[in-house]
Write a structure and sequence with these properties.
heterotetramer, A: about 80 residues, five-stranded mixed sheet, 3 helices, 5 strands, about 25% strand, globular, B: about 150 residues, alpha+beta, four-stranded mixed sheet, four-stranded antiparallel sheet, 4 helices, 8 strands
């Protein structure tokens, strides 16, 4: 089981701020593939990968990063702090 | 070194004075304050979302990097989240160093990283609706100078 | 735009808050504060001499140049003269602009020019005697970037 | 008649902060020559021209600048403000 968090317009398109999912995905990219297959806003949320950022256990990461041992995955658009 | 991510307003003057009082042996203190602009009256409010677990650790890592690189005697970051109004202070950075070049460089570094690497997302609530602020290419490009 | 050359102390916090309150439509405010360092306890006091007639016009000219070049919405310079003690604030600069890059650049420009082109001279009163502070080559060189 | 002001260690070496002098000098450099000829600390104050700055009527100027019409000349070392 893995916790997935969504922020900003990803959260709005998917409709929930977080969910717990059962997954066999080996990498972030695999996980995105599983989510997109659900349709229902997930496909829209993940349509543009250039506007997508991912953090694994609260550290910025890459789409090819392995999910082994990861407890929390967060998806969000490019940050606009400051 | 102090870091606060908060929904409450902060007092730039009180924070600046407290920071300066504790900045010895610094000879230079720089502060930066970001303010919600009203964009010629179009903006009604700004909502700032953040990723609570990640925000503190991401900013603390930036501050430690800046402190080591420019030998800061002290550093401060305050960043608000939640609903803000035009004219409100969004965030502030303060840096203290022996000399001015270091204090300026560290403050600019922290601002560039806060803009693009701290997990905050701004939404502008306008008279014609609400929209997420798009990240700017120039902000991403600003990171390459460090 | 406000400029004050004075012997009295100033309140960084009060000045920062007043500046920010009047900075609209700025989105970015930068302040710099210079502080007397005690140099590991060697320094007892600093005496700052200035050229009263020239100081105001020289600084006003720098501020006008910075305001035009970086489209500042406001600028402030306060510079003390007379006898100061370690830990005292010597001077401050504040700049307000729409975006952070302009506010930072203008503050650094003003600092570089104040260092080498405003008619102030610092004398350090130490436990082993008094000496005029020598101008640094690096401060003169800093002007070439503008 | 022209007012001459001295600041920082120039003031200390010469011993007065300002004086009014009668001069026939055409340029700043000529004026310095007249002052140095007095000896008495003036020679010491003006010994190192690389450490000397001049302002004419409160504007930074050059040693070759003409003195015609100038009312106030100020000599001082490189500035150390900020």
């Amino acid at each position: 089981m893995i916790d997935i968090l969504y922020f900003a317009w990803l959260r709005e398109r998917i409709g929930v701020p977080r969910e717990r999912v059962q997954t066999e995905a080996l990498t972030v990219r695999d996980l995105i593939g599983e989510l997109v297959a659900r349709g229902q806003g997930y496909d829209l949320a993940f349509a543009d990968m250039t506007s997508l950022r991912v953090a694994l256990d609260q550290e910025l990461s890459e789409f090819d990063a392995p999910l082994a041992g990861v407890r929390e995955v967060a998806f969000f658009p490019p940050m606009t702090g400051g | 070194m102090r870091l606060s991510v908060q929904s409450d307003a902060f007092d730039l003057g009180a924070e600046s004075n407290a920071f300066m009082a504790a900045a010895a042996p610094a000879g230079a203190v720089v502060t930066f304050t970001g303010i919600v602009r009203d964009n010629q009256g179009i903006l009604q409010a700004m909502e700032i979302e953040h990723y609570p677990g990640m925000t503190d650790r991401a900013i603390a890592a930036m501050m430690e990097q800046a402190t080591a690189r420019w030998s800061l005697t002290d550093a401060l970051v305050i960043h608000r989240h939640g609903r803000l109004l035009p004219g409100d202070a969004i965030m502030m950075v303060a840096t203290a160093a022996l000399h001015r070049a270091e204090a300026f460089a560290a403050a600019e570094f922290l601002m560039d990283y806060l803009k693009s690497r701290a997990p905050f997302w701004k939404k502008e609530i306008g008279i014609d609706g609400a929209d997420w602020v798009a990240a700017k290419d120039t902000d991403e490009a600003a990171l390459t100078r460090w």
